[in-house]
Structure formats: structure tokens, C-alpha cells
Amino acid sequence: MYSEKVMEHFSNPRNVGEIVNPSGVGTVGNAKCGDIMRIYMDINETGIIQDVKFKTFGCGAAVATSSMATELVKGKNVQEALKITNKAVMDALDGLPAVKVHCSLLAEEAIHAALWDYATKNNIVIEGLEKPKSDISEGEEEEIY
Ligand code: FES
């Protein structure tokens, strides 16, 4: 039911961890399943995402999509990262079962939340970026369990 790429990223996720003093961090959750994803970004002065890490407390598809999402945004500039949709993440993983499509949305939302945090901290506007709906502040995770 899962593609080989999904299984591979689930078994051997890339960029797991956290970044101390990140340029932006975004935490999002799915209230229905209770899964949480946090993405940290280190963005340089020219707007390039030079490092990215994630922590995901969630299902296998959420882990695999986080892993792939971090691979896709690494080295990109913020505008390019903004264009990485959940569909792009799924395509890069050779698809997800229909019941797991919502898991990939967390990856897209976490990227947006991290970019929003970066933009807010630096007082800049990233064209096309909207305030994330399900951003969760540090320490609020318990509330959605
Ligand atoms: Fe919740 Fe996959 S079941 S993110």
C-alpha cells in the first residue's frame, strides 16, 4: 500500500532533529489524529534555506512526508520553498494512499509555519504566504492530544 520511497523515508528519515536558534520554526498539528510536526529552518541573509530539520510525532506517512519535505526545501530560497505543495511532496514519494493524503498536508503547513515565523521575526513579507491556521506555540502540544 505504501510506495518503496515512502517506506524508505519512513525507515531512514532524513534531517531529523532540531536547530538551535533557528531562523524560523513551525509546529502544526492535525486535531483529528493528534499528530504533530515541527520544522526548523536556518535561513541565510540572502534568503536561502541552508539547513532544515524536523521532529514529527505522528504516523509513518507523516514521518516520510516530513523527511521528503525537508529534502525538497533544503538549498531553496523562501519563495521556492513556499511553492512546495503537499502534492509535490507526495509526487516525490511516488504517491500516498488516499486515506493518508491528509498527512502530507502537515508537511506543507509546517513549511509555511516555519516561513511565517522567519518572516515575522525579520519583519518581512513573503509574497503569497498566509498566516498558518494550525500553528502551535512551544509547549501547547498537550492541548491537542
Ligand atoms: Fe495523522 Fe498521518 S494519521 S498525520
Characterize the structure shown.
It is a single chain. This protein is an alpha+beta fold. The chain has one domain (4-123): Sufe protein. Chain: A. 39% of the residues lie in helices and 16% in strands. The chain contains five helices and three strands, in the order αβββαααα. A three-stranded antiparallel beta sheet has the order 1-2-3. A hairpin with a 6-residue loop joins β1 and β2. α4 packs across α5 (101-122). The radius of gyration is 14 Å and the shape is globular. Residues 141-145 have low confidence and may be disordered. The structure holds FE2/S2 (inorganic) cluster (FES). Residues 30, 33, 35, 58-59, 61-62, 103, 106 line the site of FE2/S2 (inorganic) cluster.
Strand content: 15-25%
Instruction: Give average pLDDT, whole number.
Output: 92
As residue ranges, the low-confidence spans are 141-145
* Biggest beta-sheet profile: 3 strands, antiparallel
> CATH topology, anyone?
Sufe protein. Chain: A
Rg of Cα set? 14 Å
Q: For the terminal residues, how far apart are their CA atoms? A: 27 Å
CATH class placement: Alpha Beta
Derived from helix and strand composition plus strand pairing, the structural class reads alpha+beta
Helix content estimate: 25-40%
Order of helices and strands: HEEEHHHH
Q: How many discrete structural domains?
A: 1
What's the tally of helices? 5
The count of DSSP E runs of length 2 or more, i.e. the number of strands, is: 3
Looking across the biggest beta sheet, what order are the strands in?
1-2-3
Morphology: globular
Bound molecules: FE2/S2 (inorganic) cluster
CATH architecture: Alpha-Beta Complex
Q: What is the oligomer described by this structure? A: single chain
